[in-house]
Design a protein that fits this description.
136 residues; alpha+beta; seven-stranded antiparallel beta sheet; 3 helices; 7 strands; 26% helix; SRPBCC family protein; ASHA1/2-like_C; START-like_dom_sf
């Protein structure tokens, strides 16, 4: 299956980056690709075998979906892997570089949207995350 990788360097230490990436109350503040969307619900059981469910919705109510998966590997402050309910795999690594953290996400693409659209969407979410973390 084809994969796409997006990455960004966050100007914060890895423990803060990990906390803001994995805390549902924070996830709701950055987990969307455009200002017209939001993430009104974020829930997960952060353990191997635990489930995640992030409800993604257009603010105008025209569209919504649940992003759901099961965690397959977790190494706090280093690595997160999960399998989406549609069978695709996602790997996210966190690497501390001095006072900064490099976040690298690799995901298997789906067939509904173009690869470039998926890359842009995932990268936009990662950019939102960077802005959110650096504002803290």
């Amino acid at each position: 299956m084809k994969t796409v990788t997006v990455q960004n360097t966050i100007n914060r230490k890895v423990n803060q980056v990990w906390e803001l990436w994995t805390t549902p109350e924070h996830i709701k503040n950055w987990n969307f690709a455009t200002p017209e969307w939001h993430c009104p619900k974020a829930e997960h059981d952060l353990k191997v075998g635990g489930k995640l469910n992030y409800h993604m919705a257009a603010k105008d109510g025209s569209m919504a979906f649940d992003y759901t998966a099961t965690f397959t590997r977790l190494e706090p402050n280093k690595l997160m892997e999960y399998k989406l309910d549609d069978g695709r795999k996602v790997t996210i690594s966190f690497s501390e570089i001095g006072d900064k953290t490099e976040v690298i996400e690799t995901f298997e693409v789906e067939d509904e949207n173009s690869v470039e659209m998926q890359r842009q969407g995932w990268h936009a979410i990662l950019d939102n995350f960077k802005k959110y973390v650096e504002s803290k």
